[in-house]
Amino acid sequence: MSAPASNRPSISDNHPDFQAETAHLKGTVDAMLRQIDFWEDRDRQMGADLETSIILADEAGEHAAMLSPHVHHPYFGSLKVRVGGREQTLYIGKHGFRDVKGPHSVVGWDSEVGSLFYSDALGWTPRRGGQGVIKRRRQLDIAAKTLHRVTDLYDDEAGGDTGGREEVLLRRLEEGSTAGMRDVVETLQPEQNTAMRYPAGTPVIIQGAAGSGKTTIGFHRLAWMTNAERGPQQARAEACMVLMPNRVLATYAARILPELGIGAVNVTTPESWAIGLLGLEKLEVTDRTLTLLLTDHDNTRRALAWRRAKLLGDARMLDVVRTHLWNRFNVALRGQSLREAVALHHREPQVFALADTDLHAILRDVFAADPLSGYRAGFRQAVEDLAISHLNVPDDEEAGVLRQLSAPITALLGRVFASTTPVTEARRLLGSPEALAASGLLTEREIALLATDPLSGIPTPRRAHADATELPLMLAVQAFTGGIGRQVGRVLEPFDHVVLDEAQDYSPLLYALLGRATRPGHLTALGDLNQGMHGYKGPSNWEAVQAVLPGAEVLTLGRTYRSTKQITELGARIAATYNRAAQVQGVDRDGAEVQRYTAPADAPNGELPLIAQAVKDAQAAGHVNIAIVTRRAVDADRLAEALRDFDTDAQPITTQEHRFRGGLVVLPVSLAKGLEFSAAIVSSANVQTYDESTEYERRLLYVSASRALHWLGLVSAGELHPLIA
Questions:
Q1: pLDDT tens figures, 182-223
Q2: Residue 391: phi, psi to the nearest 5?
Q3: Which residue from 262, 256, 259 is spatially nearest to 236, judged by alpha carbons?
Q4: Is 589 exposed, middle or buried (0-12, 13-18, 19+ CB in 10 A)?
Q5: Residue 397, SS3?
Q6: Whole-angstrom Cα distance, residue 192 to residue 107?
Q7: CA distances (Å), origin 351, targets 255, 386, 395, 400
Q8: How many alpha carbons fall within 13 Å on the CB side of residue 103?
Q9: Is 396 exposed, middle or buried (0-12, 13-18, 19+ CB in 10 A)?
Q10: Are strands 497-500 and 651-652 parallel, antiparallel or unpaired?
Q11: Does residue 477 contact residue 329 with C-beta atoms inside 8 Å?
Q12: Which of 92, 254, 528, 579 could bridge to 267 as Cys pair (CB 3.0-4.6 Å)?
């Protein structure tokens, strides 16, 4: 959506440096165009021979393609600095540019120097030594090669902080929502910048309230990780992964990646990544625990399902699985042996033999080594290494010997490992109290809990399926037997960096597995414990995550930027009922009062006329991207159809296959989480829909009420929920 007319940039030449900045902008644009023309002129890209010339021309073409999009908006800020008695002005942009023939260079936002633009610090030590001092920070609003506004954020000569940073932020926040996530490179706040640039190689958990920008910061941190200045910690975009809770949000968020120069990053869901790694793309993943929580009114059954799901994702289950596999493979190895005659050049055939005891010793060593590629590949490698060593095979004959041993080793591996598939083995473990007890980590009560089935009344798909709460257990079997990580052809390697969005909904077991799948220290988790809608899968606190990610740091974003103070205060009131430590500080951005629509509980058309009126009121206020939030997907489907009789056409988003393309939508809270809209309308905002006595229901209400940037409507046939009345 475009910004309201009052918020669109307009030429503003009342700043004393406006004309000088306009001239500098023109010089920068001209310098960029000259450089692009040079790169695109293939006759100038000449090397010593034809092949070198072609390579140089191709590289120059890539440089031109990367710089071209930034010509219309070459930078957004500047820094006047003093170093070693000399003053200079540095311009900060989304893409670094070096003007070899003039003063029109641009420093990348993700560089160490670029960080100074966002910081409150006034001094720094350049790499070449000495002491640097910030004399001025300046924001420059540029569009279509035209300067629109100059705003000083800090000016040493004018007395220091000008309040300009807050002014620029408020201007941006007044803009309407779009159908994709915002790029906040131009308006990163100091606390966001600090979290985004936390030292590479350290696992980071960023806790932030709804609208604090944590997801966007995670994406920007990923872009920062790909900068060459990160040295050995630098990440390759194509070797990174972002996990989002559903495909609607994944598509919404992924649109920002090309703007940050990391379009090659894989953005997916935990379920899609898991079944892809398991090689079971046709497996249907359900979340029957969530279905029960949303539909069953039996609090005892809901509590039982919650506790069982929580236990399935407990970090201890990693060692429960490991112990189970150790016992399984040792049993499978009993009586097994390997004996094969191997032909070698200029020597008599040699016999390579391994007895039962030898194989058990190999298994013990493999378990101790815990290879990323898994026990099966590790076992094979160990047997092959022993063969090469025992037979004293020359280097030039190794490949031939391994070919001769391939079939008998494969047959042995089949007898030991073949029956251990992730799906069947995870279910075999859950079905065996003896296997669950073998590690000694689970109590009798916990083992009995795992044996119960509180979900028996929830239908299952007809085709092959797995429950979302079982997937981490299946992944654990896969990690130990077949390996875990990034699939590159037939090889697994660690991800360079992984970002987890809605991190409060990932189990400690899944965190432990992702820690195995990623370079040490290269995991960024973004979450809000107040929004734990799927808390039956997630950690009870961040300490549980730190326990499985050694050295992980928890950083807190204490400010929310999404909503007006009226909407923020309402959300804070709800959150305070289940999290006494929740302190949500909003931006001082005034807006419309929260609108409340009620009718008698027995009104002929219920709340339908109220919702239709709320939509019209939001549209009359100038909002285009509007969400009607329901509690369940089935409610959204019914509501979208029923509203047509009230001259209201809303696009239903009820499954992960739907895409948010902007406009008026109706969607359940489970799919709304993570999205933001110019206006939001919470339907059935009452205690019949959101049980006041249940913490889970209050969390749902908090998420529903925190989706709006500018305008919020609360609708109920009957009295509104006491927390929002």
A1: 778 888 899 999 999 999 999 999 998 888 889 889 999 999
A2: -90, -5
A3: 262
A4: buried
A5: helix
A6: 20
A7: 60, 13, 19, 15
A8: 7
A9: exposed
A10: unpaired
A11: no
A12: 254
Q: 375-390 and 471-481 helices cross at what angle (nearest 10)?
A: 10
Counting other chains too, the contacts that 159-164 makes at CB distance below 8 Å and 24 or more residues apart are 164/139
Residue with tokens 């023109």: 26
Helix (H) or strand (E) holding 113: none
In angstroms, the CA 247 to CA 559 distance is 27
Contact 539, 679 (CB under 8 A): no
On the question of pLDDT at 626 being above 90, the answer is yes
Q: Which amino acid is at 1?
A: M
Classified as helix, coil or strand, 277 is helix
C-alpha closest to that of 368 among 474, 480, 477: 480
Cα 245 to Cα 265, 576, 596: the distances in Å are 16, 25, 31
As a whole number of angstroms, the distance between CA 308 and CA 311 comes to 5
Q: Is 42 helix (H, G, I), strand (E, B) or coil?
A: helix
Paired tokens of 196: 């985004």
Task: Quick: pLDDT tens for 333-383.
Answer: 999 999 999 998 878 888 999 999 999 999 999 999 999 899 999 999 999
Polymer length of the chain? 725
Reduced 3-state DSSP string for 140-191: EEEECCEEEEEEEEEEHHHCEECCHHHHHHHHHHCCCCCCCCCCCHHHCCHH
| DSSP β-ladder status, 77-83 and 86-93 | antiparallel
Using DSSP, state whether 266 is helix, strand or coil.
strand
Query: What Rg value do the Cα atoms of the chain yield, rounded?
Result: 30
pTM: 0.86
CA 554, 557, 562, 564: dihedral to nearest 10 degrees? Answer: 140
